[in-house]
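[audit] Reproducing an earlier prediction to check determinism. Same input, same settings, fresh worker. If the C-alpha cells differ from the archived copy the diff job will pick it up downstream; this log only records the rerun itself.
[audit] input (346 residues):
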Amino acid sequence: MAAAPEPTKRSRWWKRLGFTGVGLAIVVATFFFILPQIADYRDVWDVITDLSWAWIAALAAATLLNLSTFAPPWMAALPGLGYRQSFVMTQASTALSLVVPGGAAVGMAGSYGMLRSWGLQAASVARAVTLTGVWNQLATFLFPVLGIALLAGRTETQPLLGLMALVGAGVFGVLVAGLVLILWSDRLARDLGDVAARVVSRVKAGIRRGPVGWGGAAFVRFRHDTVGLLRRRWYWLTLATLAGHLTVFVVLVVSLRAVGIDADRVSLAEAFASWSLIRVLGALPITPGGFGVVELGLTGLLVGFGGRSASVVAAVLLYRFLTVVPTLLLGLLAVATWRLHRPRGA
C-alpha cells in the first residue's frame, strides 16, 4: 500500500511532459509550417525593413505607453503601493506568465509572492491579487461582446467572432453575478464560498488532489476587506484596467498602419474584434504566453477581413515582439533587483 503514490507521481510527470510537448508542437507548427504558408518570410522581412523612421518612433511610443499602464491597477487595488514597486512587480510577474505554463495563474502567484516578500500584509495582498485578476477577466470577456457590437450589421462578420462574443457575454455575466453575490451580504458570500469550495474540491478529487483549504468563511473575510476599498476606488481600478488592456490594442493598430494596412482593408472595428477574440483564446493555458495560438489566430482573422498576407504577418509579429520582448527583458531585470525596491515602511 505504501508504494501506491509512485504511479500517481509518474502519471503526473507524463501528463506534464505531454502537455509541454503539445504546446511545443503548436509553436513549431505555427512558426515553421503554417505562417510560412500564409506569407513568405522574405516578403514579411521586406515589409518590416521598409518601415519609415516616423513609424518606428510611433511603434516605440505605443510600446512605452503600454508599459506605463501596467502599474496603476495595482496602485488602485493596494493602497500605499508606489508606481515604481508596482511596475517592477508587474513586469516580473508578467514575464513569468509568458515563459511558464499556467499563464495568468502563475503570474498571480508571482505577484503574491513578491508583494509578501516585501513585507506587505497577506490579507491586503490577497485582496489586491483577487481584484486585479477579476477586473482583468471582466475586461477580457467583455471586449469580444463590444467587438461584435461594433461590427453589427456587417454581412462579412465571421461566425467564430459571434460564438466567442456569446461565450464572453456568458462568462462576463457569471463573473459579475458572482461578484455581486459575494459583496451583497455575509450570508450570500458564505453560501457561495461553500458551494465553490465543494465544486473545486470535487474537481481536484478527479485529478487525485486533496480538497481546498478555504470555504465560505474566506469569502466573508474577502467581502469585509473589499467593500470599503471598492466604494472608494472602483472607478480608478476600472479605468486603470481598461487603459492597461486598450494600450495593448493601440500597439496592434499602430503595427497594422505602420506596415501599410489602412482602414480600407482592416478597419478599427475589425481589428478590435479580432484582437478581443484572440485575447480570450490566448488566455487559455495552451502554450506559455499564448505563443503560436495568438499569432496564428490573429493572422487568420485579419487576413479574413481583407489584410494582405505578408503585411498582416509582419504586423502581427511586430505586435507580438513589442508586447512580449520588452516585458521579458524588464521582467528579468526586475527579478534580479526586486529586493532593492522594497516599499518604505512595509
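[audit] rerun output stored. Observation attached for the diff report: Residues 284 and 290 are 7 Å apart (CA to CA).
[audit] end
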